[in-house]
Amino acid sequence: MSNTSAARIPGRNILAVPGPTNVPDAVQRAMVVSMEDHRSTKFPELTHGLLSDLKKIYRTAEGQPFIFPSSGTGAWEAALTNTLSPGDRVLVPRFGQFSHLWADMAQRLGFDVEILDVDWGEGVPVERIGEILKADRQHTIKGILACHNETATGVTSDIGALRRAMDAAGHPALLFVDGVSSIGCIDFRMDEWGVDLAVTGSQKGLMLPAGLGILCVSQKALKTIGHAKSRRCYFDLADMVRTNATGYFPYTPALSLLYGLRAALDLLFQEGLDNVFARHHYLASGVRAAITEGWGLEVCAKAPKWHSDTVSAIVVPEGFNAAQVIDTAYRRYNLALGAGLSKVAGKVFRIGHLGDLNELMLVSAIAGAEMAMLDAGIDVRPGSGVGAAGQYWRTHTPGAQTATHAATQRVAEPVARRAANA
Amino acid sequence: MSNTSAARIPGRNILAVPGPTNVPDAVQRAMVVSMEDHRSTKFPELTHGLLSDLKKIYRTAEGQPFIFPSSGTGAWEAALTNTLSPGDRVLVPRFGQFSHLWADMAQRLGFDVEILDVDWGEGVPVERIGEILKADRQHTIKGILACHNETATGVTSDIGALRRAMDAAGHPALLFVDGVSSIGCIDFRMDEWGVDLAVTGSQKGLMLPAGLGILCVSQKALKTIGHAKSRRCYFDLADMVRTNATGYFPYTPALSLLYGLRAALDLLFQEGLDNVFARHHYLASGVRAAITEGWGLEVCAKAPKWHSDTVSAIVVPEGFNAAQVIDTAYRRYNLALGAGLSKVAGKVFRIGHLGDLNELMLVSAIAGAEMAMLDAGIDVRPGSGVGAAGQYWRTHTPGAQTATHAATQRVAEPVARRAANA
Amino acid sequence: MSNTSAARIPGRNILAVPGPTNVPDAVQRAMVVSMEDHRSTKFPELTHGLLSDLKKIYRTAEGQPFIFPSSGTGAWEAALTNTLSPGDRVLVPRFGQFSHLWADMAQRLGFDVEILDVDWGEGVPVERIGEILKADRQHTIKGILACHNETATGVTSDIGALRRAMDAAGHPALLFVDGVSSIGCIDFRMDEWGVDLAVTGSQKGLMLPAGLGILCVSQKALKTIGHAKSRRCYFDLADMVRTNATGYFPYTPALSLLYGLRAALDLLFQEGLDNVFARHHYLASGVRAAITEGWGLEVCAKAPKWHSDTVSAIVVPEGFNAAQVIDTAYRRYNLALGAGLSKVAGKVFRIGHLGDLNELMLVSAIAGAEMAMLDAGIDVRPGSGVGAAGQYWRTHTPGAQTATHAATQRVAEPVARRAANA
Amino acid sequence: MSNTSAARIPGRNILAVPGPTNVPDAVQRAMVVSMEDHRSTKFPELTHGLLSDLKKIYRTAEGQPFIFPSSGTGAWEAALTNTLSPGDRVLVPRFGQFSHLWADMAQRLGFDVEILDVDWGEGVPVERIGEILKADRQHTIKGILACHNETATGVTSDIGALRRAMDAAGHPALLFVDGVSSIGCIDFRMDEWGVDLAVTGSQKGLMLPAGLGILCVSQKALKTIGHAKSRRCYFDLADMVRTNATGYFPYTPALSLLYGLRAALDLLFQEGLDNVFARHHYLASGVRAAITEGWGLEVCAKAPKWHSDTVSAIVVPEGFNAAQVIDTAYRRYNLALGAGLSKVAGKVFRIGHLGDLNELMLVSAIAGAEMAMLDAGIDVRPGSGVGAAGQYWRTHTPGAQTATHAATQRVAEPVARRAANA
To answer: Per the database record, which ranges form the Aminotransferase class V domain (chains A, B, C, D) (predicted)?
Structure first.
């Protein structure tokens, strides 16, 4: 088989790109399923459970989740074509490759896209948008497309603040949010933030292979789909609404991934969503300690308020090529780092710290990046990254109330292990 | 997990719907993969191999295959939106639920759809289309949408004849073919038949879970994509053409399914495509023997020339409800039969005989259908279906030259097995 | 890989040998585990759960189960060497290949083995043993080795009656029982029957791959292990008793199989042990209907009281070679039947009907055996086997109270399935 | 299931015990197999391939390998009982828990065991044995039991030198070698060293779950099995010799593990055995750099010549308890370190560096051990371990000729990765 045919590189590839993420064993197992009739009387049990539980992930009571056999890009398209008509005006702050691509999609789908360019390293310009909305007295703007976590630069934006600015302007535009690299990792509050269309994919916080595009839609947005004139069929929500109601899908669903999703949701609930978010913050803080305190380098995000808890883009010093670091990491150390994309190509490399991770898995990425930087001639002290991250983790615990409690428990049990003959 | 939480029904569910099909062990195994960076230097090896090998499945030298994270329905949409502009006139013969759904999609996507209704149980009306094309002197018809194998009725059409009719009319319309339930099972000759857009999905002849929509496009059709004005982004072929060229995809691909596809293609080539087709014909003939000779019933397909080698729709006698047969089969015998859809709901039940199957796997479906018919009060002789199928299979071998040879070999080796103490 | 390298035989191999049995999906999944430290503080949770739940399978409150990384043969040896000393006299009724092999093992391990030969097709000669025991006033007989279900001939013996005969003789010999092909399939009552050492393996009723030898030991037998002078180390129970107490094993356990066992036990309890037994009887009765009513043949077991609910040995008519039937079934129909062993080689073929099975899985075996018999020239009516089995199953339900109830439920739900658009 | 039921600890457990080792994906996949008839005509292909390829692992032309469903402990027993008779005199140098356990087994099996106690941290005392053998003019010593790699202390002995000493003494004793934690990792030359019985298990260098005990036997040793009077049945080699000859086993083999072994052998050959050994040395050297240069600590092995390339036992400073380090590592950092056993309990913790490993997987173990030591109050500089290991690995390549070449290739390819749109 082609995946073992080439020269064997021993050991596990260390996957530190910001998605796809590591698939936990329990999820991997859950996907080993025999096929079944997706129109059986038994099938709706699976569908209903998934759709109901996805609401918890989105922290929504009134929103309705949808699952497409697609990548997250498909869910982007579903969000736009089901609620907008060609020529509709949308506002898109752009500050990275993924906000760029979403804007580009909106243009290609025929909307009137107004791009707000922002320095890469910053996020959604809330005040500026507030002013634009206030100025839009005729409410010609139909939607705002905001990237919650820009995967290319490691920047998280404040969607709650964006909602407040929209409300302050009394503007009825729909709020579209790309949560592909945040949902399931960083707190995401669909109802509280008044998000209308929230997009994610299976291969990030949901810890699955790619193949599911997931979209959650507010009641307000659902009401618009009858009026939206964008042509669509595969991604048509009306078909989904109708068939999902009885537990089915309009066409054959990606069964093995659905069973994987079932297991992934179970894992997230078992850990507790608040604990999941706290863990991501705690792990990200260690990685940032490695970057700044250990290596003396900077992240692409220009201020702590933009720091992403799921991905860090590390700026290599002037005169060095980040692509070389990435290449050495991959070829010599079997480590997959994220590349700098577009405007920051060659200037940054990225470490994804999202999904099913813990301290020592991240240590591999930090050490490998460090070794590759040294190989590239970048002057960092050997061991400094892991040292700084380790010191952070040793002296902190994940912050959520329950998580702290759990962490305490993990340490507090007596050293009773391994009896004499063990 | 939800797939084991309910009351346990022991043993394997017998999957006899016409897709999804049974996933072979080797394919199931191949999907147990760790995630990896889909932008690594190693990744193109996988992509190039798959795209190159798919051409063999389509029997095309000049066509270009594409793989989408979607169901087959997505590939239908990709075929249409990349080559047609809103208002374009297309001709769609309709003779079952799937030809109906494709016509419906074409309408919803804004094309000028001319439906040719044909009795359910017949297939593409080649002569009638020939006449329409001849009459279309201005070549206003841009495409013909033909369902190679109508899954709802078990009818296979003659696409070669359709091409000859188009050529005889000297008509330049594009030939769109739905091969979802034929490709990889029934001989499909993209180049020889001059098919321009050939659609399939992963969950039928390719023996995978659903989740991949596969489309093969002729050079002629590829030339049109620059002019087609249908709005599209997720399914845009231009993005695919550009990124596939270097072995990548425009967005995160469905990795585990791609590795499964690798293994599935290997299996098909290992058996030999001609042998695969011969096996499907041989197995289907046995099922038809059960239906007609064993049970004295009829299939929905109105003449032998329409008989499908991948699915048979069995007409229950007047006064009986096929839905009851299906329901009893599922609940009491753990057998998933295909339901009658739309016009034939309640009138037929379907046995899928496609994918990774052999005689004795089909015996389960035949016997289970027979037992469920008896439970429903239908007068068939117990054992008659299996008896007739078995007699067919005992006295025939799969027809392809090499397959016959292989079958001979399978029997000819001496009875040297199982020594004394075994 | 070698398991796919040879000429591909399409479809699933129908596994109808009396072990190994079909591994359910949930068990297959459960074995896809990363390795872990078997001396961790977490590990005992697994061990304790398994050992505790195995008691339920043995229906014992006081017996203690042990799990060895071995085949069932290893558990045979463990039973003998931990309780007997070289020269100890044991009584072994012999009526098939497996009772023969256990006797042979006992001889090779240095015990004084008194073999009671019984016609193959009959089982434990309870009365004869009762007489021998009564005559053994000095209690020189230390053990009786009884095969509960002789896999070679499809004969089940009455262990309860054997215990009553032992008690009637007031004899203190240990009662050793081979339950390899009965435990988890046929009711086995360790405590009620006063079994002292009950042996099984993972690959039969426990629905796992081979690799675990399982032994349950009564308190009476446990008391003897300090006195037993047979040399042993790997299979020494004292090491197991000591390490199991805290949840560990004396050496590295077969981890993936242990996780599989966890899942297998969960499935058995989910179905309900009584339902499992009732299902085996119901399925076996259908197979016997095929053999006797359908084909007009006989099973090896000489009277209904010996009929095994886990395996049937079918006697082919005079002048035919059962090996040819088996060989054709395997090569031409991809069906693995059990061979006749030793005395019955060539005279019988065997259908295993144990483990994770249902009606339609067995139909494959019955039909395949029938087709292979026809190919061999044996005069059976095509379809007669499946017809007779089907009629039995259609008109009966598994007998246990709860099972009947469940079966009723399976049928009683309204025919509400498959809505319009399905 | 019990393996996910408890409080979820996120991310992968870092497995750094010296066995079981990490199972590569390709091996994990290979074990997902349906059961099959182990007496089929197809089965011998698997058996013959495995037995033949195991000879390459042992570097033997004349030795014969055997595979038992057992742990490595079972293979220890098979080696002894098939070649020795009760009362036979054997010499056992003892310098760790595993040499101790083998000696203990030999005593329990009734041999006359002469233990040569050696300081833990040293290995086989070749000169002393040479003298004993020379003194044994009557050749009363029948066997020498040597532990090639003492897993408890991280000490590798020179088996070639031992052979030379035996030859110098002209002594015919059989040479028994425990290669459980060396074979498949450290060069092992059965023929060149004149090893008579070489034992290993599946869960170390062979990268499988535990469950297979593997033994390779020289022709000289094979000749003794007819004379050896130790009682045995399960582990009897004569049964294996007889059944293996035609590709079968005396009892049901552990099928899923055999398929895993097939895949594991393929991986080892694909990498190249010399490369595998060179990689283990290179990785071990990095770990030792972490211990000595980074942390300023010592390994248990008392001189470089004893350094094991598969496991390092790290001595914690006076006044600290290694058990606390191990416990913190497990509970707080999800890292499984090996415990100090018996004489060195509390004094050492162990890092296994064997099996399917690379630099960055080991980094996790080093960093986790360091963090746990810091938590325990041991004065090591944060990051020093990973820094020293990384510097070693950055400046060295695996030493074997071909490996160096491969490593060069891995680095030399141009930095052509990740095109513009990636």
So the answer is: 30-340
Q: Is the ipTM of this complex over 0.90?
A: yes
Residue A242 corresponds to which tokens in the numbers above? 């109708």
Looking at the DSSP bridge assignments, the partners of residue C336 are C15
Q: Does the pLDDT value for residue C414 go beyond 60? A: no
For chain B, how are helix, strand and coil distributed in percent, rounded to 5?
A: 45, 15, 40
Residue C9 lies in a domain: no
Q: How far is CA C338 from the centre of its chain?
A: 14
B198 and B55 belong to one structural domain: yes
Q: Which residues contact A149 (CB under 8 A, 6 or more apart)?
A: A155, A156, A157, A178, A179, A180, A181, A182, A186, A308, A310, A311
Per-residue pLDDT tens over the stretch A89-113: 999 999 999 999 999 999 999 999 9
Amino acid identity, residue A364?
S
pLDDT at position A414 over 60: no
CATH of residue C346: 3.90.1150.10
Q: Which residues of A touch D393 (CB under 8 A)?
A: 371
User: Is there a domain that residue B419 lies in?
Assistant: no
Residue C263 has pLDDT above 70, yes or no: yes
- Distance CA(B160)–CA(B164), nearest Å, equals 6
User: What are the tens digits of pLDDT across the range A73-87?
Assistant: 999 999 999 999 999
Domain match, C92 and C208 both: yes
Tens of pLDDT, residues C341-377:
999 999 999 999 999 999 999 999 999 999 999 999 9
Q: Do residue C276 and residue C264 come from a single domain?
A: no
Q: How many CB atoms lie within 10 A of CB A73?
A: 24
Instruction: Tell whether the model's pLDDT for residue B1 goes beyond 80.
Output: no
Q: Which of B32, B35, B210 sits opposite A20 (nearest CB)?
A: B35
C422 Cβ contact list (under 8 Å, min separation 6): A39, A248, B339, B341
What are the distances in angstroms from CA D344 to CA A20, A416, A422, B90, D300? Answer: 43, 17, 12, 82, 9
pLDDT above 90: percentage of residues in chain B: 92
Note the pLDDT of residue A398: 93
D217 and D314, same structural domain?
A: no
With beta carbons less than 8 A apart as the criterion, state whether B351 and B309 touch: no
Instruction: Locate the chain B residue with the closest alpha carbon to D1.
Output: B1
Give how far D29 is from chain B: nearest CA, Å: 5
Which chains pack against B, by 3+ Cβ pairs within 8 A? A, C, D
Average pLDDT for A347-368: 98
Q: Is A70 found in the same domain as A34?
A: yes
- D291 falls within a domain: yes
Judge whether D281 and D396 are in contact, CB under 8 Å: no
> What six digits make up the tokens of A269?
């609930």
Do B153 and B277 fall within a single domain?
A: no
Interface of D with C in 266-285 (CB under 8 A): 266
Q: Across the interface, which of A70, A230, A252 has its CB nearest the CB of B19?
A: A252
End residue of a domain, out of A208, A234, A269:
A269
Which residues partner with D14 through β-bridges? Answer: D335
- How does DSSP classify residue A293? I
Q: Which residues of C touch D108 (CB under 8 A)?
A: 231-233, 236
- Separation CA C334–CA C351 (nearest Å): 14
Domain boundary among C269, C302, C318: C269
Does residue A384 form part of some domain? yes
pLDDT of residue A7: 60
- Compute the average pLDDT of residues D283-295: 98
Binned at pLDDT 50, 70 and 90, residue A421 comes out as very low
Instruction: Report A:92-131 residues touching B (Cβ under 8 A).
Output: 105, 108-110
User: How far does CA B417 lie from the centroid of its chain?
Assistant: 39
Owning domain of residue C304: 272-408
Q: Does residue D414 have a pLDDT over 60?
A: no
Q: How confident is the model over D97-146, as pLDDT tens digits?
A: 999 999 999 999 999 999 999 999 999 999 999 999 999 999 999 999 99
